[in-house]
Amino acid sequence: MEKKYKVRLHGSEFNLEKTKKGIKVNNYQFKPEVIFNGKFYRVFVNGRELKVEFRDNDILLDGKIIDFDFKSDPHIQTRKGSILRKSADIRAAIPGKIVDIRVNEGDEVADQQCLLVLESMKMRNEILSPMAGVIDSISVSIGDQVKSRQLMIKIKLK
Amino acid sequence: MEKKYKVRLHGSEFNLEKTKKGIKVNNYQFKPEVIFNGKFYRVFVNGRELKVEFRDNDILLDGKIIDFDFKSDPHIQTRKGSILRKSADIRAAIPGKIVDIRVNEGDEVADQQCLLVLESMKMRNEILSPMAGVIDSISVSIGDQVKSRQLMIKIKLK
Amino acid sequence: MFDTLLVANRGEIAVRIIRAARELDIKTYAVYSPVDKNSLHVKLADESFPLIEDGVTPSYLDIDQLLACCLRENITSVHPGYGFLSESEIFAETMIKHGVNFIGPPPKVIELLGNKVKSREKAVEVGLPVPLGSEIIENERHGIKEARLIGYPVLVKAVFGGGGMGIQRARTPRELRIAIVNASAQAKSAFGRGDVFLEKFIEQPRHIEFQILADNYGNVVHLGERECSIQRRNQKLLEEAPSTAISKEERKSIGTLVCKLAKKLGYKSAGTVEFLYKDNQVMFNEINPRIQVEHPVTEMLTGKDIVKEQIKIAQGEELSFKQSDIKFRGHAMELRINAEDPLQNFQPTPGYVSRFVAPGGPHIRFDTAIYEGFEIPDCYDSLIGKLIVGAETREEAISRAQNALKELIIIGFPNNITFFNQLLQDRKFQQGDISINFIEDRKILEKLEKNICALASALFAVGLKKSQMNLPSLSENWRMKGKMDAIGRD
Amino acid sequence: MFDTLLVANRGEIAVRIIRAARELDIKTYAVYSPVDKNSLHVKLADESFPLIEDGVTPSYLDIDQLLACCLRENITSVHPGYGFLSESEIFAETMIKHGVNFIGPPPKVIELLGNKVKSREKAVEVGLPVPLGSEIIENERHGIKEARLIGYPVLVKAVFGGGGMGIQRARTPRELRIAIVNASAQAKSAFGRGDVFLEKFIEQPRHIEFQILADNYGNVVHLGERECSIQRRNQKLLEEAPSTAISKEERKSIGTLVCKLAKKLGYKSAGTVEFLYKDNQVMFNEINPRIQVEHPVTEMLTGKDIVKEQIKIAQGEELSFKQSDIKFRGHAMELRINAEDPLQNFQPTPGYVSRFVAPGGPHIRFDTAIYEGFEIPDCYDSLIGKLIVGAETREEAISRAQNALKELIIIGFPNNITFFNQLLQDRKFQQGDISINFIEDRKILEKLEKNICALASALFAVGLKKSQMNLPSLSENWRMKGKMDAIGRD
């Protein structure tokens, strides 16, 4: 039985699948071997040996406190990108400021076309369209401060 | 009206008296002048100017968080040391280990005579008698670990 | 002597300036935008004043508010730090006009150095090599003519630009036409003036810069070079000194020319002369008339306090040492710790600092303005700390930095700590064989991703083993940690 | 090369050793007594093992337990730190006999240096000046005869003593009789052997010491001197380098003799040769065959890592530098931050660390094993941190230290931070005019008490003003702070 998870390590999220062959993270396949010696776990993976410990409420990787967690994720599609999208909600992945909007409502857009520019921490990030389609609605204006996950643009199939 | 207080500053305790002439701390007399500018207090004392601020739950002295508090203290005698003691409880001022006991129950002791040696943090502290008298009881033994405020010896008048 | 100083900046450099001023017995005044209310520089300064965000000029760029604060509080000097108003001759001029000492070079010098074509000319005059290049380009035809002389590929650069912005590369006349139009438009929008010029594109150069100090009496010294080739998105990530590319003789000869240039310009205060380096040849790039993020590298190497020197120079003190007094010792390295996700093309990741432990030990310095419980605002840059190490050799500096990274704990958002682990263990990096394309050339991000995925699989496997031992059956939602935060469980 | 190392110590020096070992890619093993379970050295080490307190031998002194740990875990080297077993030739010998490398000098050398009379003889042999003194005193009559030759006042010192223990002063033959009896009894009880000898008592000397490094191949270098005259209860409080009393020529000539002495002794590893200094004259005191608390002063001054050098020497590496390669730069100073109350005769004050902020910035180092929430045990020494500053001059070192003390926050129990404020602002200290009697001579504690009382009155006055403004009537029990702790209100 295959199971899919979201894992968070060092603050970043990864897709993880438990397969018969081992554990697949993003597109890499691993076969970690774990030994528990009563005090800590030794893991052999990818040619390295790691030490994992649990102390108080912390997880320590090679003696260093890290941020790690995971959850099962029913929302992960089996084959990524293989389904035909009917619409897309463009949400801010990070908080920031809208410094440019390059499309108007009703515009046709191509897959991977730049929709708007989101500035965060002095970096300009071009937000690209995940599909070809038509701009359904734009709910932000230039100069707006947006929060993480805030809806910015809706796109639908032509 | 004179009032007596205990104040704690930097973890140490001091005796404070509010008098007509000003404020007496231990045996020093001061006349601090305080000005509030709406944001912080400026204090002129002992030839210096200080700045005192309250932020969140902290007191800041010249911008640095300090440990300060006080309470009124009805137990402080008006004139220190002027009353004749009838007995004394010798308590540990600090936690530590008894490394030597120099008296026995029933012994006569002089004022300021060494009663026992308390070792704390590798320092040997000679504990002296606050009065002339007779050892009433000894409630510790060499090698004992004592806590702060723990009773070690009782002394009574001869 | 100054008795009061306004810190017209925020973050770690504001903290740095406060420390320097306090050692000189100068009272420090911080200013802060609404989101910076709880920042460390506000806590450390003797006094602090809020800036109002009026929606027009961002607060730290608001000359009127900063000036008003100085006049109201009788503040007699101002340090601009880096970024913000540090290279604004208008700011410098305004402050000086109102009797506030500006800690930096004279406004006329800042203005001249803002013009990249004129800066080049001055460098040429003292005998510093420059890349092949042009005057200001009048039109596309002029550009194509000049490019033929220079030879493709060429860069189209903004005359009044800086920080890698408004730069376009062109390989053919056709590309050049478009590049000139685009670069000019970008320059106009970013810097207010659309003038551009051409420069020969150098493939895989190193970025090397010299630190100088100049007082008001014509004394100029250099504090050696810094190697800043490890970059991402044209921004520096790791700086070190000395450079493995520069010999003692080159240091001396380039250093001498750099000092000559500073004298010719009438330069005062601390400054940095930037070069590209390729095939045993430095080529002048530009001068940064301000303190730089990476100045601690040179402080570690020389024992100096460059920010204090800036203040002392502005106070009218003469430099207390000569070139021959400067003792370079060992090797120094700075790692810029950023709130950014290397695996998402270094996308910034502002957030809440839920855990913070700084590294310690011999020859370790950690400059930061964060603390546990601090919320990093999203409207400023992603730099959250600078790990600086000193060592006897470059090899020791690397091992010391690796060890310090083991001690450094920052939890709450993605950051580039593990990126540096990956970088420092790269063989070519360890050999000092680097260029500004290093991260791509060595596929550091690809290796990093694989390694982090491996760690994730290892930790997951441990969780699996742990729960098998502790629980009767496999639960779908384990709780690895007591304290949960960002991700939000199902 | 070692791959494993046992740290047979605790506190900040254990943390220091772990850092050095990790940079050399050596796996570190900590041990801890029951009260040290939550100590930082336990958290930082790769692995850690509890020591059992059997009520007979304190755990960190228990050679059997330490050896058993090494044998059980296959640990191939041991670093003793300072204090505890660091000067025990029996410990060194035992470890070596069982195949565990002891990081320190050979046991025979430790043994010889434990004998203060023999150490003196060796120093005389290489031409180092010693104070007038005697052989081992056979009886009181012998003592009186020797004292007549030396001249009163004399010190009666334990032959096998150390750390200022078992020393008695005598001004007359009558005092001498008592002193010999007492010193001998004390020495017997503290060191197991009652032998004593006499030495001329030097009034108000300075304490100056030279740091040496010697490898297994006869290479010996010195890293200059440290001045450690600021002491209380015969224990160092502040150390600095260079000493204001030692000229460049003296540094060279004494340094040369010190290296000669080390060679004569067959010394290996790091060590310190201690001197008294009076009237432009050094007088040999003793050699400490171990790392010292104040070693970071020399690290800051020279850029070296002395603990790493110790490990490398023990691994059989040759010193990688010669005397002429050592670059002394500027001035360095260490302030020992102790949990002690200067106003109560420096009585120790263990407690709970409710607030801790370490200082930062250029040329600042803070070595510690405490953290917020740590409970300082009462059975070990009172050292809780070492503030080390580097600077270009002594004057700058003082201002840098003063500034760092402003940043250093330790709340929960009395400590000596404010004591150092008082000390550093003393005019004579600033002039470098110091001796081991400095604190008494300059009435530092009296001035400190008055100043702290003044602060208390000021804060009280503020509380008064504050409550008058905020409350309708004066309450007897104000609450100055939200968070309350130790004192316990009425």
Short description:
Chain A is mostly beta strands. Chain A is 0% helix and 56% strand.
Plain-language structure description:
The complex is a heterotetramer, with two copies of chain A (158 residues) and two copies of chain C (490 residues). With 158 residues, chain A is mainly β. Chain A is 0% helix and 56% strand. Chain A starts with a strand and ends with a strand. Chain C is of the alpha+beta class and 490 residues long. Chain C is built from 16 helices and 21 strands. In chain C, the strands form five sheets. Chain C has an eight-stranded antiparallel beta sheet with strand order 14-13-10-11-12-15-20-19. Chain C has a five-stranded parallel beta sheet with strand order 3-2-1-4-5, with helices on both faces. Chain C has a four-stranded antiparallel beta sheet with strand order 6-9-7-8, covered by helices on one side. In chain C, helix 7 crosses helix 8 (173-191) and helix 13 (417-424) packs across helix 16 (444-470). Classes of the chains: A mainly beta (158), C alpha+beta (490). Chains in contact: A-C, A-D, B-D, C-D.
